[in-house]
Each structure stands twice: as C-alpha cells, then as structure tokens.
Amino acid sequence: MLSLHGAGVSDGISIGAAFVLSRELPDITPQTLTPENVEQEVERFIGAVKAAREQLLKIREQIPRDAPLEAASFIDTHVLILDDKMISAAPIEIIRKERRNAEWALKIQSDRLSEIFEKMEDAYLRNKQTDVRQVVERVLRNLLRGPDEDDKLDPGEIVVATDLTPADTVVLKHKRIHAFVTTMGGPISHTAILARSLGIPAIVGVHNATRYVRGGEEIIVDGKRGVLIIAPDANTVAEYRKRQRDILRRREELARLRRSRAITLDKQDIVLLANIELPADVKAAIDAHAAGIGLYRTEFLFMNRASPPGEEEQFRAYVRVVRALPNKPVTIRTIDIGADKQVDGAAHSVGRLPVNPALGLRAVRLCLSDPSMFRPQLRAILRASAYGRVRMMIPMLSSQDELFRVLDLVEETKSQLKRQGHKFNPRIPIGGMVEVPATAISADLFAPHLDFFSIGTNDLIQYTLAIDRTDDAVSYLYDPLHPAVLRLISLTIEAGRKARIPVAMCGEMAGDARYTKLLLGLGLREFSMHPATLLMVKRNVRISHAAKLAKLARRALASRDTEAVHELIDYENGDDAA
C-alpha cells in the first residue's frame, strides 16, 4: 500500500480500478517544406484546427442538462482560444514565412505564448497557460492523428493522467467515470473548478502518480484530503467505504439547508455571498441561494481578444448579472490585470514587463496610469447601478493617494453621466480590497473613506509570507493560519467595526469550512466564496455560537506558532468541517 499526496479539488471518495491515461505526444521536429508544398501544409493546419473545433462543440453537447452553466463556459473558453488569431493564424504565418511543417509552426507559437504566461504572477490568470497548452495539444493530436484513448474507458474506472482538459472532464462525466487524478494542475484551474461543479472527486498535482499507478490496480481517491492510496489493504478499504457513507449522509443534510438562513446559534445573521467570473456563473450562485455576489471578476471580459471591451459591452455584461439577482448586492471588482496579467484585451496598456511583476504595474495602479481603459469601466459599472444593488470594489489598494484618485475619477464620471442624461445610483457603495499587508496595517486610515472592505486572502497570504503559492518549491509555506496573516485579518475587521462599515472576505479562505468558526470568532460576518462551498460553510455557521467563538479567536491570535493554531482549529472543528 502506498499513499501519494496532491491538492484535493473536488470533495468525495472513490474506490475502484485505475485507468492510466497516456497522451504523451512524440517529439516535434522541424521540417523544411518545398515552396510548392507550403499551401498544402497550411490547408493541413486549417483542417486540424477545424477538427478540434468540431470535437469541442460535440463535447459541449454531451454536458449533462443539470450541470452548472460554467461547464459550458469552460468549453466555450477553449473554443475562443482556438479561434484566437494567436493560435489559428500566427502558425500559418510561420509556415509560409519559414516554410516549416505545421506541427513545428504550432509548437513555436505555443512556446512564445508560454513565455508571456510564465511572467504572470497571478495564479488564476497564469493557469490560462494550461488552457492554451491544452488547446494546442488538441490541434497537435489532430495533426499527428493519434488515437483517442478515451474510447477505451469503462464506466466506474478512476482515471490517472498527467493532465486533463475541461473537455476531458465533461467526457469523463459523460462516460460515468468515478474520479480522476492528475500529476499536473492546480486547485484553481478550469479542470479543477469543473470537477467541483460536476461533482467528480479529484486530486491534482500528485507528482509521479502515472509512474506508480498500474492500469487495473485498485486505488482510493480522497478528494477532500488530496490523498491517493495505491493498492489499499482490506482495513483501509473498509474505513474509506464508511467515510463514503458518511459523506453521502452529509450531502443529503446539506441539500436540506439550501433554503435555510445562515444564522448562528446566538441568532447572528451571517451573509454568505458568491464569487463569479462570468455572467453565466450566476445560475450556480442562485442555485446555492447565495445572498448576492461578493466578487465579480471583470478581467474575463478582457481575455482572448485583441482590444479591450467597450463601455456598452461591459454595461450589458454587468446588467445581465444584476437583473438575475433582483434586490441582492452585486459587487463588481474593477479590472485586476497588469504587468503580471498581460491578457490580450489590455496588453496595449501594460508595456514592458518589470523584473518582478507581482510588485509592478497592476490592478488599480494600471487603471490610474491609463484612465482611457479605466473610464469606460467606471461608466459601465455606474450605469449598471441604476438596475440594482451594485457595489464597486477597488483591488490592490496600497496607499490612500490611490484611493483618493479613484474616488475623484468616480466623481468626474458621475458628472459626465449626469450631463449626458444617463441614470445611475449617485450613492453607489465603493469598497476596497485588502490584499496588501500595508493596507491591512493601515485599514483604520482607509475605512473612513470607504463603504466596505473585502479581504482577498489569496494575495494577502502570498504577500505577507513572501511566497508564490503556485511554486511547488515554496507552496508548502502558504498557510492561512500563520499568526501574521490572522493578525492582519483581525486588524482589518476591527478597523471596519470601529468605522461601522461591513467587512467581507472573498478569498479561498472564506469558502473553506475548516476556517468558518475561527473567522466568526474574529468578527467576520460576510463571506464570499465559490457557490459549490457555500452550503458547507452555512452548515458550520448554523452550528456555531459566534460570541463564544471570540475566545477561540483570542487564543489563535495569541499563539506563537502556526502548528499550535492548526491544532487549536482542528480540535474546535472535530468532524464538523470534514
């Protein structure tokens, strides 16, 4: 029996036979074409792209009818990438100019795109490199005419692979595959998010999984704890079968909570909001009975395109979300891209990449350096505010000067809209994200000028601990329970309390039920998360006594090391967050 560990990205336990999916492509070598063969090679490439598009559209038709809308949106993203000139046209230029074979031309273009993505610091957008690579590999397989091993899969098997695309994930669901494990990937990749949405137990980043697992061998996938057990003994199988039954029982209990209030035992109402990335994601938020949208990531409107979206396009996207949630708050975050997130739709604004993009021109800094990109978004958000409870949120604030400049731009935009006869909410709430340690430490200075705070724990933890959470060499240091992180969270909540403005949390920590009791004890009353995690957090809210948990928070803040905090939280949770 052997245990391997990775990142558990989709809850659940699966026990069954392994199917090791091998999709390694042969080495691509350059070939020089004769002049008369160039156009024939171009046609071959165009045919491979066309075939890839048809494959994706066919897979889209296989998405279960009851699947969240985001399942289709991820396939659509791959179609958009495939249609982008960087993939569909640039290799043709290489074929013609350099007289190279289609496979080599596509590889050269893919390598160029990879260099751009490697310089991105933001974990979510850097994961877009995975999507591009997956689309490229689909086209390459068509060029090489390799066999599709998916057809060999039997229902009930557990797939072990180097990597899987969102399209693969849909196919696996269609074939009733029970779980999957990949050696690559991260918890915020499209494949991971889709696995959660479709309810497929999954673990990613299990290094050497394809090396140690043999086809047909019995394995256990623990998607909650990120554990892969190879050739388990009888006692281990029995233990995990019991856990399977417990999980099923808990899921049935959670389903009954869907319409229940998020209220603590001492009658404190807690606001549970949803994070979304696309207008289509609203359905998942509605299905989870979220109290509104705590984070609408607008940068996705700027991706896979040659120029930024205009005011009207942004306005329509925002209004679509607002109208879907009548009388509920919709928190629209202004664009969070920059030198570390050089997406096509804003590349003209970014310029030269700095040595350390994480500390460079990004988010609000970029917006202030190029108001020509920022103003249309401000106009679109303000106009959308006439249709519902829109809130505007500013990311990456680190100084009061930045905030005052943004507020001045907002007032200027309001004046323009008023002169032009556009309707908007003149008192639209404006909040700031607390992602930089400097902002948390000086939260009391920001609070009087804002209507709310939202703590972005993903970046706050990363910046506080000086680690890249996507770098395997240091990712083990990424810990939400580090005393420094907890103190910064506490400072922010306290500053909000004194200024009488609400404080929310929209990072991954908010959606992890293990931390719900601690956050309640620290005084957090608004949580924003992926819709798939909302019911578990609601369950832990309903079994908690917020006032009594203040003692737990004080003990955690007084702890001198991270291990002690973990032990404290594990003891308090017992089986509640399992």
Question: In brief, what are we looking at here?
Answer:
The chain is an alpha/beta fold and 578 residues long. It contains 25 helices and 16 strands.
Could you please describe the fold and organization of this structure?
With 578 residues, the chain is an alpha/beta fold. The protein folds into 3 domains: 1-234, Enzyme I, Chain A, domain 2 (Orthogonal Bundle); 255-268 and 467-578, TIM Barrel; 271-428, Phosphoenolpyruvate-binding domains (TIM Barrel, Alpha-Beta Barrel), CATH 3.20.20.60. 48% of the residues lie in helices and 13% in strands. Strands 1-8-7-3-4-5-6-2 form an 8-stranded mixed beta sheet. Helix 13 (311-324) packs parallel to helix 16. The longest helix has 24 residues, at 38-61. It is globular.
SSE topology sketch:
Layout: E1 2-5, E2 7-10, E3 13-21, H1 38-61, H2 69-83, H3 85-88, H4 90-98, H5 102-118, H6 123-126, H7 128-144, E4 158-161, H8 166-174, E5 179-182, H9 190-198, E6 202-204, H10 209-212, E7 218-222, E8 227-230, H11 234-256, E9 271-276, H12 282-287, E10 293-297, H13 311-324, E11 329-333, H14 347-350, H15 363-369, H16 371-384, E12 389-394, H17 400-419, E13 430-434, H18 437-441, H19 443-446, E14 452-455, H20 457-465, H21 483-499, E15 503-505, H22 516-522, E16 526-529, H23 534-542, H24 546-558, H25 562-573
Parallel strand pairs: 3-4, 4-5, 5-6, 9-10, 9-16, 10-11, 11-12, 12-13, 13-14, 14-15, 15-16
Antiparallel strand pairs: 1-8, 2-6, 3-7, 7-8
Q: Can you tell me the number of structural domains? A: 3
Radius of gyration: 24 Å
Looking at CATH, the homologous superfamily of the largest domain is PtsI, HPr-binding domain
CATH architecture identity of the largest domain: Orthogonal Bundle
Number of E-state strands: 16
Instruction: Note the quaternary state here.
Output: single chain
